[in-house]
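User: Predict the full complex structure for these chains.
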Amino acid sequence: MVGETLRNLLMIAWLLPLAGFAVEIFGGFWGSRKSRVAAWMSVGCIGIGFLCSLSALLIWGNSNSWTVLDHDSHDETHVDTDHAKPADALATDTHPSPDSHTSHPPVVRGKTVYSGTLYYLARFGSLDISLDYYIDSLTLVMFTMVTFIATCIHLFAMGYMSEELTEELVDHSAHLSNGHHVHRPGRYYRFFAFLSLFCFSMLGLVLAGNIFQVFIFWELVGICSFLLIGFYTERKSACNAANKAFIMNRVGDFGFLIGLMVLWTFFGTFRFGETVNDTGEVQAGLFQMLARDETGNVLRDAASGDVKIGAVTTGADPGGNRTIPYSLLVVAGLGVFAGCVGKSAQFPLQTWLPDAMEGPTPVSALVHSATMVAAGVYLVGRFYPMFVQEVLLTIAYVGCITLFMAATIAIVATDIKKVLAYSTISQLGYMMLGLGVFGWGAGLFHLITHAFFKSLMFLCSGSVIYGCHHEQEMPKMGGLWRKMPITAFTMLVGVIAISGLAIPGLIGLSSVFAFSGFFSKDAVVATSLAFVKDNPSHFLLFIVPLITAGITAFYMFRLWFYTFAGKPRDQHLYDHCHESPWIMTGPLLALSFFAAFCAIGGEDGPLYRLITGDQPAHIAHGIAAAAGSGEITLPGHDAIHDVHGTAGTLALIAAASGTCLAWLLYGTTLVNVAEIRRQLSGLHGFLVDKWHFDEMYDALFVKPAHVVGQGCAWIDKTVFDGIIHASAKIMIFVSKWDKLFDEAVVDGFVNLLGNSTFAFGRSLRVIQTGRLRQYVMFIVVGVVALFAILFTTFPG
Amino acid sequence: MLFDELLDKLITETTSLSLPGFSVELCLSATIVAMLMMRLVNLDRFVPASVTAILGAFAALIFTWLQFRQIGAADAVVSQKIFTGLLIHDTFTVFFRAFLSLFLLLTIALTSLTGIPDNEDGPDFYALLFGATIGLMIMASANSLLMLFVGVEMASVPSYAMVGFLKGRKPSSEAALKFVVYGAGAAGVMLYGISLIAGVLGTADMSLLAIRLGEAAAGGSGGLSDPELRAVSLGILLVMVGLAFKLSLVPFHFWCPDAFEGASAEVAGFLSVASKAGAFGLLVRFALALSGAPGTESLMIAFGVGIGFIACVTTTFGNLAAYSQTNLKRLLAYSTIAHAGYMVMAVSALLVMSNSPKAASMQIDINRSVEGLLFYLFVYLFMNLGAFAVVAIARNHTFSEEVDSFKGLVSQSPTLCIVMLICMFSLVGMPPFGGFFGKFTIFASAFKAGDVHWFMYVVVAFGALNTVFSLVYYLRVLKTMFMDARPADARPVPVQLGSLESIYVIALASFVFLLGVLPQFLSATAGAAAQSLAKF
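Assistant: Here is the predicted structure of the two-chain assembly.
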C-alpha cells in the first residue's frame, strides 16, 4: 500500500514535467514571444513534483516510524537484506534484523525498498525489458533534492532568461559572416520546455528500477544537456561545446553498453531488485543474484574461481549453479563505471564539462553541477552491490586524479563560471573517491550537499553575470559586494560550505559548527584515511584529497575576493552593475539556507541517516581481503569512526591554510600576485592550458580521425561514386529500352483493354433512349425473358 | 367467441401492442398533420416548415431509440406481430426505422441548407417526404403481401411528386411522368404476382408462405412441371420484378437515370438511399418468407442464383454506363444502380444459403449476409448522401450539375472536394473508409454461399472486377476536381471551412471514416437486427 502510494507520487513528480514539456514545446509561445506562460507552467510542474517528492519522503519515513533516523552511533546494526525471501514487490519488508555484534540493544532499522514493474517494453522468452521502479531512501532523497533545486533554478531562470522575451533579440556573441550580430526571435518558451524535458529525464533516471532503463534516461539527459548547452545555437563556441559534450559522453556510454551486454548475457535480467512479474512469479534482481558471504566478498566457485549467480543465497548451495567469470564481472563493473566517467566528467573524459559552460548559467547550475553530472555518482552508488574490489579501486584512483587535476586548473581560471566548472569536476572526484574507498554513505552525502552549495554558487555567478551585463571575467570585477550584497552574502555561504571551514568546539566539546561541505568532505577524507590505514600502499588516496581540500579553499576564496572584495578594477563595469531582481535572489537565499544547514549533525544528522537508510548490506562491516581480489581490505564503519577525528582535524587545517593563503594573495595587497604568476609562468601556462588535455586529445583522436575521414572521403568520391555512377548509367540505358517496351507493348495492351471497356460503356448509352414507350415495353420483355430463362435453366 | 369479445380483444391489442410498436410512423404522421395545419393558420410564416419537419424527424429518432431500448431488454419479445399480423415489429424493423428516421433528419437538414423547397412550398415537400418515409417503414416491417403492396405504393407515389417538384422545369416534369408511368407498370406487374401467390397458396400472411408452399409442393415433383409451383414461381418472379423496379436493377432500371437527372440532387439522394433501403428490407423479408419450405429448396436456390446473375449484370452495367456520363447526377444514378447490384449480392447469398441442406449449420453465415447488407446500407447512406450534398451545395453556386463545372474546385472550396474524395473512395471500397467493410462483408458472405452453389464464386469475381471498373469514373471526377485548373469564367464556389454547409458535409464524411475505423459499433447492432430474422 505504501509502495503504491510512493510509486504514484513519484510517478506524478516524474511525468508532470514531460506533460509540461509536450505542452510547452508544441504549444509554442502562445502567440507572443513575450509570454511567460511556458515558464510558469514549467515551474508549476516541477514545483508540484517537489511537493509530491517531499510527501513521498514523509510517507516513507512514517511507514517505518522514522527508525531510519534513530541514533545508533556508528555501530551499524546489521542490516539483513534478506535476499532469499521472495517477498511481494510492494510489500513492506520491515523486520527486525539480528544484531550480529552487539553492545547495543537491537535497533529496528526499517529496510524499506519497494520495487516493481511499470510497463513491459519487450519480452524475449522469459527475459523482460521493462520500465521498473526501485524506491529506497536514496531514491527519495535524490527526488526531493533534484525537484527542490530544480524549482529554485526554474524560478531563477525566469529572471535570468528574461531578455529572451522579445520578438527580436540581438545576440552580441554570435556573428554572421559579414560581421553583423545575429538577430533572432527570443526563445524563452523553448528554454523552459528543454528544462522540463531535462527534469523528466533526470527523475526517470533516479526512479529507474533496472540498469537498461537507467541507460535510456541516461541518454535522455544526455540529449537534454546537448540541447541546453547548445541553446545559443548561433554561437559557434556553443555548438562546438554541445557536440563535444555529446560525443565525449558517447565514449563513456560505449563502455556502459559493454557492461550491459555482459550483465544481460550472464544474469539475464537488468532489474535491480526483486519484482513480481505479471504472471505472479517472483524474479530475483541483479542485487539478489550476486551473493556475498559474511566477509563481504562475492561467493565464488571453489574450483574454477568463477562467481556464483543465483537467487538462492542460503541453504546447501549458496549462489546456485550458474556462474560468471570473475574477470567479466570486473569488466561489467568497469563498463558501467565508464559511463559514469563520461557523465560525471571524470578523468580522462573531463574536458567537456568546462566547455559546457557555454550554456545559459541556470543550465550550468542545474544540469552541469547539481544533477546530471551527479548522475554518474548516483549510478555508482545505486549499482554498488555489483562492484568488486578491483572496480572500486579503479573508481577511487580515477576520482583521486580528477579531484587534484581539476582543482589545480581552477586556481588559474579567470572566468567565474570556469572556476566553478573545475570546482565541480573536482568535487565529483571527491564523491567518486569516497565511493571507491568504500565510503558509500560519504560519497552520496557529498553528492547531496554539493548539489546545494554548487547550484547556489552557480546561481550567484549567474546573478553576477546578469548584473554585470554578461561579463564573466573576474579580473574586471572587484568590490561588487557593495552593489550586490545579497549575491555576495549567499556566495560567501557557498564558498565557506565548499571549502569545509568549521569552528571547532562551538557546540559542545566534541562537536563542531560548520556548513554542509565540511561534514561531507570530512566523511570522504575520513573514509579514505581508514582505507589507507588498511592498505598503506595506496597512501596517495588520502594525501591527495587532503592537499586538494586546501586547494579547494584557496581557489574558492580567490574567486570570492576577486569578485566581491577589494576595489573595482573596471570602473565602467562597476558603475553599471546592479543587484538582481527578487525572483533571482529569492532562490539564492533559499538555496543558501540549505547549503549551510542541510548536513547539520554530520554523520549523526538526519540527512546522512536518510541517505544510508537502505545502504547495501555489506557496507557496514567492510570487506576483508580475499585471495584473488587484489588483496584489498575495505574499511567498515567502525574503522572509519576510529580515524574520524584525525581526518577531520587534518582537513580543517588544510582548508584553513588554503583560506589564509587566498586572503593573503587576493584579499590584501601585501603580495603581488602578478609577480608570483611571472615567477611560475611555466606551471601557470601548463595549468591555464588545462594540463594540455584538449591538445592531447586533438592530436591523439581528432587529427587521426580527420586523416582517416579524409581518406574515407577520397575513397568514397573516387571508388564508390565511380561504381554508383557507372551503375546509374547502365540503369539509364536499360530503362530506355524498358521504356520503349513499356510504351509499345504494355501500354498498348492496357490502352486496348481500357478503350474497349470504355467503348462498351459508351455503347450502353444507346439503350437509354429516353422514350417512355420503349421503357415500358422493356418491363414486359424483361419479365418474359426472365421467366423463359427460369423455365429453360430450371429442370421440371 | 362473441363479436364484442373479439372487438374487445382487438381494441386491447391495438392500444397496448400495435400502436406503441407503430409509434415512429404515428409520430411522422402527426408531423405531417402539424405542418399542414400550421399553414392553414399561417403559422408557417413564423415557424418555417423545415423546423417543424426537423423536430418531427428528431422525435421519430427518439422513438426509435426508445424502441431499441425496449426491444434490447433482456426479457423482451424479439419478434412481435402487430395489427393482427399485418406488420411485424422486431429488431430488424426497428433498425430500418432508425435508419430511415436518421436519413430523413439528414435530408431535411440538407434541404434547409440548400433551400430547395422555398418557404411557401415547404409543407408540401416535407409532407411528401414524410409520407414516402412512412411507406418505406411499412415496407421494411410488412408481414403481409397486402402491406407489401401498400408500402411500395405509399413510398412510390410521393416520390413521383417529389421528382417533379421543380415546377416549371421541363426535364423535371418529363422525368416525373416517366417515373409515374414506369412505376405504374411495375406496380401492375407486382400486383399480378401478389394475386397469383395469394391465390395459389390461399394466404397473404408472409409468415405462412413457406408452410403453404411446402404443402403445395408435397407430393409433386418439386419442379416447374407442378402447376401450383409454376404459378407460384411466376408470382414470385413478378413480385421480384416489382421490387427490382424500386431497386433499379437491370433490366428494370430505365427510369433511374432520367428521374435522377430531372429531380433535384436532394430528391435524388433520397431516392438513391432511402427508397433502396426500404426495398431491401422488403426483399429480405420476402426472400426469407419463401425460404426453407421442404421440397422447394432447389427452386429457391435457383431464384437466389438468378438474383446473383441479375446482380452481376446490374453492377457491370451500372459501372460501365457511368463511364461516359457528363452530368454528375446521372453519373451518380448509374453508380446507384451499380451499388444496388453489390447489395443485392447479399440477398442472393442469403437466399442460396437459407435453402441449402446445411442451412441450420450456416445460420451464422446467413446472419452475416444480412448484417453485411445492413452495414452497407448505413455506410451507403453517409457516403452517397455526402456525394449528393456536395453536388447540391456546388449547384447552388454554379447553377450546374455537369462534371465540367467541378473543374479545379479544390482551389476554391477544398472542404467540399476533400469530402467528395472521402465519399468517392468509400464508394469504391477503399480502406480505411466504411465502404470497404460493407463490401468486404457482402463479398465474404457471397463467397461462403459458394459452398452451396458454384455460381456464387462467379458473383464474387464479378463484384471484385466491378470494383476495379468503378475506380475509373470516380477517379475521373476526382481528377477533374483536384487536378484540372479552374476555368477563369467559372462561377466561384466560396464554401469556407466553418460554414454550415461545410460542417454538414464534414459530419457526413467523418461518419464514413468512423465506420471504416471502428466498424464494430454498427456491425454489432446490424448483427442483432440480422439475428432477429434468424430461423434457427
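Residues 388-688 of chain A form one domain.
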